[in-house]
Specification:
- A hairpin with a 2-residue loop joins strand 5 and strand 6.
- Helix 5 packs antiparallel against helix 6.
- This protein has seven helices and nine strands, in the order E-H-E-E-E-H-E-E-H-E-H-E-H-H-E-H.
- The N and C termini lie close together (10 Å).
- By secondary structure, it is an alpha/beta fold.
């Protein structure tokens, strides 16, 4: 199996509580051979603690962020609330791809669909699906971190997000974590081995 020098993109989207972050961190820790790296995002918030520009994030002022949105420099971005932006620069993704990294995105369904549209065959988009809405509700309740009305909001959002599943290259149902991880791994290996 030979890997060509330029990296590829792997996009993950899922409703909250589906185990997406668990699967991604397992891949990054246990499968170094895949050469996965997160894209470094931009944010308009101030650095926290020991965060350094260009390491955790690129820190921009809200004005700089807006100017770059105007210039269409972002692959995806969102304004979480007024003047608090997060986004991914096309130039940064290109830099990482050129360096041979396989760039991982952990984004909402709309972001996932947009990135896939932009990169086409260079990207593999994976949608992690809960076994059922009932099971998702059970998991969110078991976490006991959210008030009931917040759980209701998350469930409503999940139902909306599930309608996007068919727009993804691969849908993996996370019922039993080990199986879901194995499914995702196989899909990525197959994708990366293709020319």
């Amino acid at each position: 199996m030979h890997f060509n020098m330029r990296g590829k993109l792997i996009i993950f989207s899922a409703p909250s509580g589906t185990g997406k972050s668990t699967i991604i961190s397992w891949l990054m820790k246990e499968h170094k051979e895949l050469n996965l790296a997160f894209s470094i995002s931009c944010t308009s918030r101030a650095p926290r603690g020991t965060e350094q520009n260009g390491v955790e994030y690129f820190f921009l002022t809200p004005e700089e962020f807006r100017a770059r949105i105007e210039d269409d420099e972002f692959l995806e971005f969102e304004e979480v609330y007024t003047d608090r932006f997060y986004g991914t620069l096309k130039s940064q993704v290109e830099k990482q791809l050129e360096a041979g990294q396989n760039v991982v995105f952990d984004v909402d369904v709309k972001g996932g669909v947009n990135i896939k549209k932009f990169y086409g065959d260079e990207a593999l988009s994976i949608f992690i699906q809960p076994p059922s809405i009932n099971e998702l509700r059970r998991r969110l309740e078991a976490r006991a971190t959210d008030a009931p009305d917040v759980i209701d909001q998350r469930i409503a959002r999940a139902e909306f997000e599930l309608t996007f599943a068919e727009k993804f290259d691969k849908v993996v149902v996370n019922d039993i974590l080990e199986y879901a991880e194995a499914d995702v791994l196989a899909a990525i290996q197959q994708f990366l081995s293709k020319d």
